[in-house]
Each structure stands twice: as C-alpha cells, then as structure tokens.
Design goal:
Layout: H1 2-40, H2 42-51, E1 68-73, E2 81-84, E3 90-93, E4 97-100, H3 106-117, E5 126-132, E6 137-142, E7 148-151, H4 158-164, E8 177-182, E9 188-193, H5 195-199, E10 215-218
Parallel strand pairs: 6-10
Antiparallel strand pairs: 1-2, 1-5, 3-4, 6-7, 8-9, 8-10
Length: 219
Amino acid sequence: MTTTNSFLRYGLFAVSTCVLVPTLLWAQGGSGRAPATSSSTAPPSQSADTSTAPKVHDDSFVIGNDDVLAINVWKEPDISRSIPVRSDGKISLPLVGEVQAAGRTPLKLEHDIAARLKNYIGEPEVTVIVQQINSQKFNILGQVNKPGSYVLTNSATVLDALAVAGGFRDFAKTKSIYVLRQSPDGSQTRIPFNYKEVINGKNPTQNVKLQPRDTIVVP
C-alpha cells in the first residue's frame, strides 16, 4: 500500500512538471521576443535623425570677387556646378537667376539659393563650398626677392608681406615704399611706407593692416 501511494505521488509530480515547464518556457519566450522587436525598429529611427542633422559650417569666411564656388543642389545635377564670382560680386544659376555672392558667407549664400529654389523644388538642399580663394590675396611688386600674389592671412601687415616676399633686393628704395588700395568706387589710395622709420619705431602707424587686393610697391 505504501509503495502504491509513493508511485501515485511520483506520477502526479511528473505530470505537473511536464505541464508547468512548457508553460514557463513559453512565457519566457514571449517576453524575450518583445525586446527583439523593439531593437529591430531602432535603426530606422537613428537613421532618420542622422539624415536630418544640420551641416556644420565655418561661418567666418566672407566670399569675394573671383572666388570659385562649388554649388551642389542635392539630386539636381543640372543646377549643381562650379562657378566663379563675377567682378560685380554675383553668380548666375539655372532657376535661381543672378544672386549676390560677394560679401556673404557660404552658409548665407546657401540659404539665399535654397529660398529661390523653393518655387521649383520641394525642400531643396544646397551646399556651397569655396574651391579657390582668389579674393583674399595681396600683391607685392618691385625690388623684393619673391614678388607675386600671396594669400592674405588674418592681421597681416606691410612688414609681414615684406617678410613673406623674402626681403629687399640690393637697390630697393626702402624709404619710398607704398601700398595701393582700391576703394569701393574703383579709385585707388596711395599709402606711404618708410621701412627705416617703421623698424626704428618712429612712425609705426605706417605699418597698416593689409586688405584684400592691396598692392605693395617697392621701387
């Protein structure tokens, strides 16, 4: 009798185990699938955030005449092109027409072009890159070792330009140097520079900060 009861108790335990274990496994499997479904939907959301992230710009450079710009309109190859800024400071693009480029930053020009294209293209994406900087230069001519045209760096002065040009030749008239500066109306201003006075500290105001398109003449 004791043996029979033990057998019955063991049989009931085995049956209960067979019923409970699959149930628990099914519940765990169901809970494990939910996170998997959630993780599978994450990449599209992250991808959407990346595509709408704003582009970073250095907004300190100002476009000038003769600079060469690479203008790209996304998915619009007929509009995208490399184009120089004309002497009047403007560029011309299909659908856009003439637009002022000189005196503006690449970011500002992007906004101007995109605003005009909205009449023809839904949500236009415009990128402006300065390919060649031809406006931010100065010239130095005459009795220097390396005359020519040089890129104008921030806060460069006449003394800086003379150093870049390799100094004077033997017969340079260092007291008669001058800077030719173009005015907005097209006229020129002549700024005298006496090298010996400047280096001796007698007239340091002559060592002016250079502007784009200044020409230094060393007779």
